[in-house]
Amino acid sequence: MSKGSELARRFRRTPPRDVLIVMLSAMGDAVHVLPVVTALKRAWPRTRITWVIQPLPHTLVAGHPAVDRFVVFERRRGFGAVASYRDLRRTLRGSTFDVCLSLQVSAKAGLIQRLAPASIRIGFDWRRSRDLNWFLNDTHIPDGPDAHVQDQYLEFVRFLGVDPEPVEWGLGLTTAETAARDRFFGELGGRAVGFVLGATDARRDWTPEGYARVIDEVGERFGNPCLLLGGPSEKDSAMTDEILRRCQGSSRPVDARGDGLRRLLWLLDGCALVVSPDTGPLHMARAMGTPVVGLYGRTNPNRAGPYRGSEALLVDGYAEQPGERYGASRTYRDGMGRITPERVLEKIGIGLRT
């Protein structure tokens, strides 16, 4: 009997009392963890789920109904890093976890899973592990074909004998956030199209010229108000200034950027459609059920595209030739330049008509 079959059989009889999730950073990855904790809590309602996470993604998922406890890991730089891990160990002291799920294949996550008092530490197979992460786990899910990141995370759920279907994110709005959303879009008027300006990795970004051209056409062709979405970073600010300078249409886009992931969440939820490169807000929009026109040229959309949604709206610059067939490998390409305003407008038209 395989280790996975043995664990699944064991937990069908007696579910674990305490499960630890290790996923520290990356907004999109944090969103992909949500169907994992939701499925586990649905199958094992009495199991206590703890999630070790860094401060920024914590602001998005804090209060999630499937997570009983968040442990916020503030990683300091240089010599202060030692103190960060010492503080975490002190926080976890007295806890005993039946299972630790190591969803993040990095050295810092590996150190945390070793510090955690867990009976079983489950990580990825050898091929998908990095930074010595494989050696820091005692149990590994089987190697499988390249797949979407979300499906790879759900492999852990199946390994434990839990059915991940239906896939649910459970990323809802509070009463106050719902009121703020309704007030904002009520004053805006019309079905808004939101434009997420950029990713942390600038190589995933589209061009200000492309955005400006599309925004002008959306106003003229469809009559929808347009929102510029993102944060207050210098990069987003520079792109916003350049887009506004280039826009020539009679209806100017609204600069709705600002601090706060929860504010961004209700903005994404209120949009009729969102246009975005591969970045955290794209996956946030997908989790809220908002149609997404994904702009993919750097990363593989079969691996990191909107999960089970908006496939018909994807603008595929990753394909080097029209109709190219490719798998879900982690390979990067320089294909954002293959994305044209005409292709984006075509997908926006489809999205607004459905």
Mind describing the biggest β-sheet? 6 strands, parallel
User: DSSP strand (E) fraction?
Assistant: 5-15%
Helix and strand succession?
HEHEHEHEHEEHHEHEHEHEHEHEH
Low-confidence stretches: none
Helix content: 40-55%
Notes on the structure:
With 354 residues, this protein is of the alpha/beta class. Helices cover 41% and strands 14% of the residues. It is built from 13 helices and 12 strands. The protein has a 6-stranded parallel sheet with strand order 3-2-1-4-5-6. α2 runs parallel beside α6, α2 packs parallel to α11 and α8 crosses α13. The longest helix is centred in the N-terminal third of the chain and has 17 residues. The radius of gyration is 21 Å and the shape is globular. The model has no long low-confidence stretch (mean pLDDT 93).
The gist of it:
By secondary structure, the protein is of the alpha/beta class.
Task: Write out key terms for the chains shown.
6-stranded parallel β-sheet, 354 residues, 41% helix, 13 helices, 12 strands, alpha/beta, globular
What's the layout of helices and strands?
Blueprint: H1 3-13, E1 18-22, H2 27-43, E2 48-53, H3 55-61, E3 69-72, H4 80-92, E4 97-102, H5 107-115, E5 118-123, E6 139-140, H6 149-159, H7 175-188, E7 193-196, H8 208-222, E8 226-229, H9 234-246, E9 254-255, H10 261-270, E10 273-277, H11 280-287, E11 292-296, H12 301-304, E12 315-316, H13 341-353
Parallel strand pairs: 1-2, 1-4, 2-3, 4-5, 5-6, 7-8, 7-10, 8-9, 10-11, 11-12
